[in-house]
Amino acid sequence: MLTVAFSQKGNKSEVNEDACLSFPHLGLFVVADGVGGGPSGDLASRMVVNTVYETFRDGAVSENAVVQSMCKANDRIHRTAQEQNLKGMASTVVAGWQFGSRLICFNVGDSRLYRLRDGEMVQLSRDHTRQIQKAPNVLKQVVTNAVGIKPNLQVDVSHHDCQKGDLLLLMTDGISDLLDTESMMNIVSSPLPLAEKARALVAESEQRGGQDDKTIILALMT
User: Is 2-220 in CATH node 3.20.20.70?
Assistant: First the structure.
């Protein structure tokens, strides 16, 4: 497995509110994004990633353990928000766990996991969003599920196959909101080295006007 992780602060916030974790030896990858408009988004996303790290740095991975680590992060964020008067503090999260020929996708919110195989890009995660009208002729997507926003967390879990040559892409909406699947596929299907593909995705989203933080993990099955 070849992997690369890249994160870059945008212009919307003073700090990078994204966080990520790459455990290639476990086949486990996580991307989190502090919910925009809420307080301490950077703290929330790091609490998610740190909780997953603490869970698996010395332990074996299982589907239930990943879900439980996200629920534990939910408890921590929710409690911190109440204790420190940070109502609305929350984070999205998407994770992929690859083992053998299997891949399990976990997600809460709108950070995404894609799989590129044989020239076809498929989104494996499911967005937890709805569209609202902000002004006449102005529509906005808002997150409907996030880690920390409620006492109990519902994690979306889906099972997929995985094979040699597959490329997994985990990313925050700072990239996916600006690039459609065709645009992303054109970049990651190029002969560029894996790290340059990650940088190119970030650069292209910036060129298209993206002001949000941008985080990407690429994992190539070898």
Answer: no
